[in-house]
Amino acid sequence: MSSKSGHGGNIYQAAKEHGFSEEQIIDYSGNINPLGVPRTVKEAIIEKLDMLSIYPDPEYHSLKKVVSEYVNTSQDNIIIGNGATELISLFIKSIKPQKAMLISPAYSEYEREVTLLGGQVIRYRLKEELSFKLDIDNLLEQLKMGVDLLIICNPNNPTGQAIYLEEMRKILGFCRANDIFVMIDETYVEFTRNIEKVTSIPLINEFNNLFIIRGVSKFFSAPGLRLGYGVVSSKELRKSIEDRKDPWSANTMAVVGGEALFTDYHYMDNAKRLINEEREYVTSFLKELPYIKVFEPDSNFVLCKIVEGDVRADYLKRSLLEKGMLIRDASSFPFLDNTFFRVCFLTRDQNKRLLEELVLIFNKGVV
Amino acid sequence: MSSKSGHGGNIYQAAKEHGFSEEQIIDYSGNINPLGVPRTVKEAIIEKLDMLSIYPDPEYHSLKKVVSEYVNTSQDNIIIGNGATELISLFIKSIKPQKAMLISPAYSEYEREVTLLGGQVIRYRLKEELSFKLDIDNLLEQLKMGVDLLIICNPNNPTGQAIYLEEMRKILGFCRANDIFVMIDETYVEFTRNIEKVTSIPLINEFNNLFIIRGVSKFFSAPGLRLGYGVVSSKELRKSIEDRKDPWSANTMAVVGGEALFTDYHYMDNAKRLINEEREYVTSFLKELPYIKVFEPDSNFVLCKIVEGDVRADYLKRSLLEKGMLIRDASSFPFLDNTFFRVCFLTRDQNKRLLEELVLIFNKGVV
Question: B26-27 and B325-326: which strand pairing?
């Protein structure tokens, strides 16, 4: 179960280990929008509880319609899944990559899926000296070594860096010419300053080697729904994925909730405003601290490096947990060591509390 | 998507084709308890809607505890899944059968999963002349042809016949001696007259070649929750299944709902009483009709054969759908032809309405 404990946001384990109830833990590790699940979602679920007695529509017609309007593409391009996780798994099973290149450090689930099927994962190392920004020409050069799948998280977790539309078009063009499929995980894309400049969905009709994954766990604060969606660039790929899919993997509450949240523009506006403000607040504060280096993010979380003193990420995490605050020790990510940690932006009060505590810990040093 | 349209209970498609809304269709094809989702489940979901903002516990500790008490076995034997469907799929991926024997006619999903992985399915044909009751000695004889997995649905869908505990012990003993794994799908077991005589869960400590699957879709009338559970007989099998499992495949509402329903003994008692009464009412009525042969079931549905006249299952289904009633044309099951149909037991009024309409159609014949 190592892959599971490797995820952020396991507040169950953290709570158990530190004598808290789950509700008492403030979770800065899960990268989840602090506004909580939209009120419209709760109302929709309450209204439609009787629908639990019937199977979800196996074709998910009505939900696909709402999603396609939300992302502005055809319904025929949409696949509904049990969280982004199921879609990652189905996509990788469908194309069975022999050699997948993974922009790293990255989320652990991609690697697990490729290796489970016997494929090889080559990690493309983002360079710290470039602040983990992608050097595209260097990437294209390395893709020539027989890679058949490129996996990108955009913006990337844990580094928080985004690749912009024109850069992505260049990557996709190169990959198409070299028979390389590209999977882009846009889990965090709604948190970017300008989604239009980051999302690759407009490229879906231009490139037939593209698969985009999104979910509602982070931006819509609804990881409990287990609802993800994929945007596919070809009918063949959609069919191949749907043939492998368990029928009804997204449950009725996910469908009902999903139909409500993708039209809740009021919630979306509030969330974007809050994250923009808190990103500015937290990163400005952290940048003033001499012992921390901040990798300026275009996401709802920030990767930090400890550059002075004897505090390390595991110690910082343990010390904060004693106060009921859970952060991500980033040393479990490839290419990162125990000087790296990641925190996400919550409400102003919560962010302030974290920053104050963090300063105290660093000022005290390891005791 | 043929495997999906092969399921009963697709009221979305039926409604669309006949100009009804989903709510206007009475579904005699889905084998779902007519009492609807337990009130306790709805109350628990409403109370815990805020939990949608956190990930489900990837270990499902609290739900496993409730399930293990419900089925009276150790928590270590329990696996939680996204409906029985995910567990069937994970189990088959774990043991990768080369040659699976499937007691047939049966639910289509087993066969799909085995063949998706390149395995061969051999259908053991239940004999109509034995009223589809299993001839165990004959089965054991046929298992000798290099079979490595035996798949049994107990009680069986669509035949409604149950295999009893002592018979199952005999099958399991033979299979253990011959290195054959046994997967038993107990989706309908709570509807039997005496569950203690049918369930194989007491055998889980006795045989290490056993995997039992159950779900909440049918008996607890909650297919929209997508909640299933498996009972495993060995640690190795549990680990192998869990290693392949997407984290959090059962969502938070499934967990919250599940924790409520497995302790709702009031609901369970009512459901059992209703099904016992309605099984008696419907089958007694049908047995009086000269043009229908009834295969006496130990489940919440009955398989019928048309033995006189020109009405066939497809015609019967179409005619009933015009009145908003959906039954299962059973001709899509292996070894059954267009004289077979299946109906499940709903409330007395609904059953009465179906039987009256059915008599009218048969008396009129094909028009």
Answer: parallel
DSSP A322: T
| Entry field: residues in chain B | 367
User: What is the Cα–Cα distance from A332 to B179, expressed in whole angstroms?
Assistant: 41
Provide the CA B324 distance to its chain's centre, in angstroms: 24
Residues of chain B neighbouring A223 (CB-CB closer than 8 A) = 52-56, 248, 252
N residues, chain A: 367
Residue A348: what residue type?
R
At B144, give phi and psi (nearest 5°).
-75, -5
Sign of CA dihedral B275, B277, B280, B283: negative
The tens digit of pLDDT for each residue in B238-262 reads 999 998 888 889 999 999 999 999 9
Between chains, do B249 and A242 touch, taking CB under 8 Å as contact?
no
Token output for B184: 């038993």
Name the residue among B3, B82, B253 with its Cβ closest to that of A253.
Answer: B253
The reply to whether A251 touches chain B by the CB within 8 Å rule is yes
Write phi, then psi, for A293 (nearest 5 degrees): -105, 130
Q: Cβ(A101)–Cβ(A122) under 8 Å?
A: yes
CA-based nearest residue to A304, from A17, A10, A28: A28
Who's near B142: CB < 8 A, 6+ residues apart? B101, B124
Residues 187-226 of A with CB under 8 A from B: 217, 221-226
Rounded distance between C-alpha atoms, residue A152 and residue A163, angstroms: 9
DSSP string, A234-280: -HHHHHHHHHHSPTT-S-HHHHHHHHHHTT-HHHHHHHHHHHHHHHH
Using a CB–CB cutoff of 8 Å, tell me whether B332 touches chain A: no
The reply to whether residue B55 touches residue A252, judged by beta carbons under 8 angstroms, is: no
Best of B53, B76, B82, B238 to mutate (most A CBs within 10 Å, chain A): B53
Tell me whether the omega of the peptide bond preceding residue A247 falls within 30 degrees of 0, making it cis: no
Which residues 6+ apart lie within 8 Å of A172 measured at CB?
Answer: A182, A200, A203, A206, A207, A209, A210
Q: pLDDT truncated to tens, each residue of chain A (367 aa)?
A: 333 334 555 777 777 777 777 778 999 999 999 999 999 999 999 999 999 999 999 999 999 999 999 999 999 999 999 999 899 999 999 999 999 999 999 988 899 889 988 999 999 999 999 999 999 999 999 999 899 999 999 999 999 999 999 999 999 999 999 999 999 999 999 999 999 999 999 999 999 999 999 999 999 999 999 999 999 999 999 999 998 888 889 999 999 999 999 999 999 999 999 999 999 999 999 999 999 999 999 999 999 999 999 999 999 999 999 999 999 999 999 999 999 999 999 999 999 999 999 999 999 999 8
Maximum distance among all alpha carbons in chain B? Answer: 60
Instruction: Report the distance separating Cα B163 and Cα B135, nearest Å.
Output: 10
The type of residue at B248 is W
Residue of A294, A330, A286, A287 lying closest to A312 (CA atoms): A330
Smallest CA–CA distance, residue B286 to chain A, in Å, is 27
Helix, strand or coil for residue B280? helix
DSSP string, B167-202: HHHHHHHHHHHTT-EEEEE-TTGGGSS-HHHH--GG
